[in-house]
Amino acid sequence: MFKDTPAFSGFSVDDIPKAKTFYSDILGLDLTEENGMLTLHIAGGGHIIVYPKTNHTPATFTILNFPVKDIDHSVDELAQRGVRFEHYPELHTDEKGISRDPGGPKIAWFTDPAGNILSVLEDM
């Protein structure tokens, strides 16, 4: 039924102007703003809706994953832009916040201004 329907995802934030600055200026994504919502335009032609929600609760799981060629370079660059990475001892994150578990991808988690969890992971 939906095989040929270009689906998209969405998530809430508590402050659209802060989200706009973060996703555009810090992460460097193309976006548009219309009707009080943001549309993130991601590589490959997809898009994600970011909508305001007064009683927003941050997602407790990763809502966006960004594959990168060199995770150390990406983490360093994002840290220079003010992004703080999460440290999860149970996932063996190092001093940069990168999990280098041999059973999975190299991955690092961070949050947007609304507390939603995002990640960068080294493209395998």
Short description:
The chain has 2 helices and 8 strands. It is α/β, with parallel strands linked by helices and 124 residues long.
In words, what does this structure look like?
It is built from two helices and eight strands. The strands form two sheets. Strands 1-4-3-2 form a four-stranded mixed β-sheet, with helices on one face. Strands 5-8-7-6 form a four-stranded mixed β-sheet. The model has no long low-confidence stretch (mean pLDDT 94). It is an alpha/beta fold and 124 residues long. Strand 6 and strand 7 form a beta hairpin. Helix content is 17%, strand content 33%.
- The oligomeric state of the chains shown is single chain
Q: Which ranges are low-confidence, i.e. pLDDT below 50, for 5 or more consecutive residues?
A: none
Beta-strand content estimate: 25-35%
What's the story with the biggest beta sheet? 4 strands, mixed
Summing up helix and strand content along with how strands pair, one would put the structural category as: alpha/beta
Question: What is the secondary structure topology, with strand pairs?
Answer:
Elements: E1 9-13, H1 16-26, E2 30-34, E3 37-41, E4 47-52, E5 62-68, H2 71-80, E6 98-99, E7 107-111, E8 117-122
Parallel strand pairs: 1-4, 5-8
Antiparallel strand pairs: 2-3, 3-4, 6-7, 7-8
